[in-house]
## 1
Amino acid sequence: MARSLTRLLALPAALACALALGGCAPLPRPAPGDSDGVQRAGATPSWLRILGTAAIAPGTEWGGSVFGGISGIDRDPATDEYLLISDDRSARGPARVYTARLRYGVQGLAPPEITGVHLLRAPDGRPFAARSAARVRVDVPDAESVRWLPGAAQFLWTSEGDFGRGFGPQMRAAHADGSHARSWTLPPAFQPGPGHGPRGNGTLEGLALAPDGRSAWLAMELPWRQDGPTARHGRPGAPVRITQLDLDSGRPLRQIAYQPDAPPQPRALPFGPELNGVSEILADGPHHLLVLERAYSTGRGFAARLYRIDTRSGSDTLALPALAPGSHRPAAKTLVADFAALGLPVDNLEGMAWGAPLADGSCVLVLVSDDNFNPAQATQFIAAEYRPPGGGNAACGTTGGP
């Protein structure tokens, strides 16, 4: 969610936390019996083993810009550098990506090292305009996810768009230096309209590149308007759509429905957000995706759960103008980890990537949070060993299970 949840808060996050008296602590694990009918990976999921966490303080300046708003992450295997995209919307500096190094092992995660910054550029070669200066129809991207293409000469990146200025969600490719390489025309159904289409600030939050590099999966954060309501505590809401796009032709190949959970806790104030949605997806072999759900309830804080789905298990919803019970089969999902059950306080987790394997070949997931440029938050990095039952992920995302 662009600049994540701050634009939805009725009060600035720090004030909302203070009024709640409990601070912005992570949400506790749902009580037994808070069943949502999801296939669980055991009573206490153990697919993840936390290696370590680290943080970059809010307000950190680097390369003439304020570091923060990190909404997507991906690793270049050749250089072992991570690409980090900011959803700043050119407010504290032009739209940009950072590079960084992360060092971790079984002993923990070292402090991240920022190594570079590159401006994202429009097709005319100029940096994207600042939102404050955009008085007319000027594209101000709300960057949310990033994936290197094979060879790491170009990367894909998504924008949630700016509905107020007439821009819907977008996917582009950029060269490694941030200069424009290509844009895709998304299907008409991706564009907002009266009573239908994506919700503002709830569109292309997740992006996964297929292992063969020929297609990408694009995940909506929130349901399309015609598909039903968003999640609330005690009510999971409508499913979200995840669409596979052929990168060569730009043609949509398939679309599946994914059902997020209800937020684990109600908000502690009578106003402010209480929501849950998809904040990132990641390919785990040719037929599986890891899906990161991020929840927020005012005065309670953030929560996160990680699921694994088989993209073949859901029916194709491309031809369905609206999703209704019985009209489709959502993709079955298996719980990989509930971060509250792991005892790990989480911030606003929005990015997820495969990290360098451990010395013994074990796979590692790296997650990162968006600090919203809020002094009450931080950019949190998490390194976790990924241990699916029966193993099988020797190539860490490129082969997957059956």
## 2
Amino acid sequence: MSILKNPYFLLPALLFWVNQYLERIQAIFIPYLYSYFDDLMAMPVVLGTTLQIYRWIHPLKNGFVFTPVQVMVGLVYFSILFEGLLPIWSSTYTRDFWDVGCYLIGTVYFYFLINRNRA
């Protein structure tokens, strides 16, 4: 099954889009959703999109899945970049270690519900 048809991928992608629409177009900011929802949805959306791209180009096609190490590298990369480095480089970003917890939850969601062998 294509990741783009997987309901476990479509739900976070849709919720992420709706949240962005409310914040950026409608200027509606719900406090905890504004602070943490995008971080919670980020890993399923980013890793799911990346997995789909790999499936288009990898010989295993829909049989390709990320290993636990590859998924953890994604989690560590996001955590270091968005919670460590970007707040140092730009005042646009705020260091919030609760975001790392959101990335972790999203990564676990991705690993068990989206990163499946559907060949």
## 3
Amino acid sequence: MISLGKTYPLTVIKVVDFGYYLDAKNLGEILLPRKHAKKIFDIGDEITVFLYLDSKDRPIATMQKPKAEIGQFAYLTVTETTDFGAFVDWGLDKDVLVPVKEQKRPMLVGESYLVYLYQDKYDNRVVASAKIDKFLDQTPAEYKTNQAVDLVIANTTDLGFKAIVDHSHWGVLYRGDVFQRLSFGQYKKGFIKQVRPDGKIDLTLQGGQETRDKYAKIIENYLTNNNGFSPVNDKSDPELIYQTFGMSKAAFKRTIGGLYKAGVIKIEKQGITLLKDD
């Protein structure tokens, strides 16, 4: 079923001077205004569009890409405040309302806030809420170790960074595992480090075979370009490891361990050495 606040590939069924009518199945024909079309289309063409209500509460399509869709979290900037709420910029011509009752504290113009987008059950409008906890899944997560996930960086804690996992659960990136600048609202690819018995999720920004292969290549290239030797080894300071190879100490130790087992390098007290092919 097609619904507002989402992106779909829809087929052009009618071309008019002011735009294109698309077949939105259960929602009927929906107009894609010509100003929101990136090129000229013909009947039968399939177009990927986002559906929402315009200023006159009519369903409408756009090829503009919103910063978030219904069911997602995003860090959005306030453009206007009123007695009934604040409007935030989500990348479309029409801003999204955060009602007063959905604000944790009064929002200020120019400030950015993490919000959740949902459809108001009374008028079908896309609205947002800054009370994000009530929209997160409280059931135990069923992730697997090293599973790739999408993260939204939410805030900092004494442990590190809290992040929303796949727009559904809270997770934590521990400070000792983060060797790059992170900002609130930033989207990142991450991996499941573990799901604890109490249901809490530990995350990492490094994992998966693709990442392991990339790190192995970085180390091999470094050694090749430095006469086959690096004074950095698994006992080195984490900051030195990051400055040299751009990875955490844990990722570095895993990578050189794999290279050692594969007979690619030798690990010594003085550092690591690239072994020459026989």
## 4
Amino acid sequence: MNLKDVPKIKHTDANNFFLLCGPCAIESEEMALRIAEKVVEITNKLEIPYIFKGSFKKANRSRIDSFTGIGDEKALKILKKVSDTFDIPTVTDIHEISDAALAAQYVDVLQIPAFLVRQTDLVVAAAETGKVVNLKKGQFMSPEAMKHAVQKVKDSGSDKAWITDRGTMFGYQDMIVDFRGIPTMREYAPTVLDVTHSLQQPNQSAGVTGGRPDMIETIARAGIVNHVDGLFIETHFDPANAKSDGANMLHLDNLEQLLTHLVAIRKTVNAF
């Protein structure tokens, strides 16, 4: 698919990577607008095509008392307000077949979580909305297996699919990015590297996922060098108190420097 097929996307002629970036979950309207405003400012300055990311609900949680959301339609309306306020596209993940039609009323890209990417009915429901479908590679799947997920979207009458690599399980409590998979998956669809989820340390005994945010730039740089089409980065102005995935998020204050470095690397790679 062509990136220009995404409504409201900017800077598509800049020959840059595109960026899916925002908080893990929508916690409030104020936090969503605050984060979006800052990322829009940075991406306009650096000419990076930008899509605001925020989960309207969190279904995959370690414990029953973990934060799951502020209410489905309330969060989706906030995503719509972000889009309208800053004239940018938005992406959110869906977990059930009924989520597809609901979320499609408010956002531009529907994301299939990694644990659910083999759920045929869910992938088909997302594709049938006509929205772009971002297929997150299962932590348990090979890069080659993702061609079947992409084919499900195509067989549903759509060519609007991306693949996002979010790391592969390495033992019980760590993730590894196998950069050999990037050229393989790019044969099937535009490929995104989910930098922050790749640095999760799941299945901790406390029931709260850990992470290695100190390695964000290392992983992101390697992705750009290996020709990923896009990057996925979760960010927050107060990661320590974020209601979901704070342990592996990038502090919002560090985003501009990171993206500045990555744009410079991209220009060097393009020169070759």
